[in-house]
Amino acid sequence: MKKIKLDIVGLSYSQTQSGAYALVLGEVNGRRRLPIIIGSFEAQAIAIEIEKMTPSRPLTHDLFKSFAEAYHIMVQEIIIYNLVDGIFYSKLICSDGKKVMEIDARTSDAIAVAVRFDCPIYTYEFILSSAGIVIEGNDFVYLENISETPEEITPVTSGNGFSSLSIDELKTKLQEALTEESYEKAAKIRDELNRRKAS
Predict the structure, then answer these.
(1) DSSP secondary-structure letter at 17?
(2) How many whole angstroms separate alpha carbon 4 and alpha carbon 29?
(3) What region, left, alpha or beta, does residue 56 occupy, with left being phi > 0 and alpha being psi -120 to 50 degrees?
(4) Contact indicator for 32, 135 with CB cutoff of 8 Å
(5) Which residues contact 188 (CB under 8 A, 6 or more apart)?
(6) Which CATH class name applies to 3-150?
(7) Strands, E assignment, 28-170
(8) Is residue 33 within 8 Å of 133, Cβ to Cβ?
(9) Strand, helix or coil for residue 10
(10) 10 Å Cβ neighbour count for 138?
(11) What gap in Å lies between CA 96 and CA 98, rounded to an integer?
(12) Over 90: is that where the pLDDT of 132 sits?
């Protein structure tokens, strides 16, 4: 089967499942999007790597990368290869330079590993056809098997509550959040700092 390359295009709160997030993957050179519901821990693990934030101690996915590199194993690509009863199945394609191995993984973990190894993410046409959404301009045209509507996905960047703090206070709060490993809070503070730099 022909593989279709995907990029990460968004990470949003999911209002349909408390404490969960919608990770949105986009078809490279295409208009289809693949939303996947993931847990908050995996969402943070993906977000801090994308934003190049450094946690005070290695997260589980950082440990996996260090362990793999110590034994000269590289993750070459991630494939989301199946969809059964709304659950996505993924695998890591790894190599030690001599042989290629496939390792089964939860999709959220596979994506968190992919961003750390900077490797491509792929899926197959039948998955995009059954679980994807097509973007037409700014509108969502839903394909079959999608339970969420656009109104049910709230951007992560909505109201951060840090606008009243000074830049020095924000920097202090950012350091505190990183020390406490509160990465979601750290990302909001970072966004506020970036907004002020841009204005």
Answers:
(1) S
(2) 10
(3) alpha
(4) yes
(5) 157, 160, 161, 162
(6) alpha beta
(7) 32-39, 74-84, 87-95, 100-106, 121-124, 133-136, 139-142, 153-155
(8) yes
(9) strand
(10) 6
(11) 6
(12) no
Stated length of the chain: 199
| Cβ burial, residue 170 (10 Å; 0-12/13-18/19+) | middle
Q: Tens digits of per-residue pLDDT, 138-153?
A: 444 433 333 333 333 3
Neighbours of 116 (CB within 10 A): 20
Residue type at 60? T
For the entire predicted model, the pTM comes to 0.69
150 burial via Cβ count (<10 Å: 0-12, 13-18, 19+): exposed
Report which residue type is found at 119.
C
Is the pLDDT at 158 greater than 60? The verdict is: no
User: Which of 131, 129, 121, 124 is closest to 37 using CA atoms?
Assistant: 131
Which residue stretches of 36-105 are H helix? 40-50, 60-70
For residue 99, give every residue at least 6 positions away whose Cβ sits within 8 Å of its Cβ, in sequence order, or none: none
